[in-house]
Design a protein that fits this description.
By secondary structure, the chain is an alpha/beta fold. Helices cover 31% and strands 20% of the residues. It contains 9 helices and 13 strands.
Length: 366
């Protein structure tokens, strides 16, 4: 990362030295948190984490320090740096986070993985030059809402698509993510990048997430004036990993980007509230069902089924909501035997209903 900002003076009352911590998001609330947590510490923001060591941006420039054992630091964290007498170096004390983008790790032993901390806006990058999956957008949007972060869908590489295609995809994304802003931009030509200015205000922090090949590094290059490596997508349309680590990238205007590697999986972790908000067009109907224990599968008076029949809610969107809900239930059932028993009973009931429906269909087909 460039250290040119370290040579700039600042007269901000919260930042008497360079670089300007206020540009990185430092404010009076963070100053109060520092005074309450580690009053003798020097404030800094974690710009990168590598194998237990952190690069921290401070008023004196970049510092390298190791995280305390048992402390999971993430890019975007604010910390207090405390000198280690005799040994040299620094110890880090984590300041309480305002937000944290947390996903479920991959593998057989899932656990929460913090992608970035203290983020204001999550830009979900989707390439117009590749395959577009609204169901993947569902995951990103639920992840953002659960994390306390405002999601924005950013359709990249607009220069590779026709105007009609861009308009059609924007309409499709607006339907897939109700209430979430959608913008189509081209980092290569600069087309419509001004639409992102409202999210890149002074002291704001914006994280970029998306699959490989979505154009994250190209967009960072354009916004920050940096020269991150980029690579062409593969012949099968899939992206290639270019960014290999998460990193804080200050912008000239004072905002901060969090650049991230492409994600192969977007597993949700304890995201019931995020799921409810991401699918508010569905969850807002459930209170109108005739029965309070409606399963929304076959009951008379089901408001959701009625909305599906008259086209107010798309069937594939309901299927996505059900799938993500089952995923969260299975995760919660690992530590809740009663919930596990209930889910098994529901699966048995569902299998019986499906078998009866197939039997009825065979009779009608004779």
């Amino acid at each position: 990362m460039s250290t040119s900002r370290s040579n700039r003076s600042c007269s901000h009352p919260l930042c008497s030295h360079s670089p300007c911590l206020a540009d990185l998001g430092w404010d009076r609330d963070w100053a109060n948190a520092l005074a309450a947590t580690a009053p003798s510490g020097e404030p800094g923001r974690v710009a990168r984490v590598d194998l237990g060591f952190c690069t921290v941006l401070t008023t004196a420039g970049q510092q390298r320090a190791s995280a305390a054992r048992g402390t999971q630091l993430a890019v975007g964290d604010w910390v207090a740096l405390i000198p280690c007498p005799g040994a040299g170096g620094w110890s880090l004390t984590l300041l309480p986070r305002r937000t944290a983008i947390v996903r479920r790790s991959a593998g057989q032993d899932p656990h929460p993985q913090i992608l970035a901390a203290n983020v204001d806006t999550l830009l979900v990058l989707v390439s117009l030059g590749g395959r577009i999956s609204p169901r993947l957008i569902d995951r990103y949007v639920a992840l953002a809402w659960q994390s306390g972060v405002s999601p924005v869908v950013c359709l990249t590489k607009a220069d590779l698509a026709s105007g009609d295609t861009v308009a059609r995809v924007m309409h499709r994304m607006a339907s897939a993510a109700p209430g979430v802003p959608v913008h189509a931009v081209s980092a290569r030509t600069g087309a419509n990048l001004a639409a992102l200015d409202g999210y890149l205000g002074n002291a704001s922090t914006v994280a970029l997430l998306g699959p490989s090949g979505a154009g994250k590094s190209t967009l960072v290059n354009r916004l920050a004036g940096t020269d991150l490596a980029t690579r062409e997508i593969r012949a099968d349309g899939r992206g290639r990993h270019t960014t290999t680590h998460r990193e804080l990238v200050p912008l000239p205007a004072g905002a901060v980007l969090v650049d991230t590697p492409g994600l192969r999986e977007v597993g949700l972790w304890q995201a019931d509230e995020g799921l409810e908000r991401a699918f508010s067009d569905i969850t807002g109907l459930l209170a109108d069902c005739r029965f309070t224990n409606c399963s929304h599968t076959s009951e008379p008076g089901c408001a959701l089924l009625a909305a599906m029949r008259d086209g107010r809610v798309a069937q594939d969107r309901v299927a996505s909501w059900r799938k993500l809900g089952r995923e969260l239930d299975r995760l919660a059932a690992r530590d809740d035997p009663k919930l596990a028993d209930r889910l098994r009973a529901e699966r048995r009931r569902s299998h019986r209903e499906q078998a009866q429906a197939r039997k009825h269909w065979r009779k009608l087909s004779r």
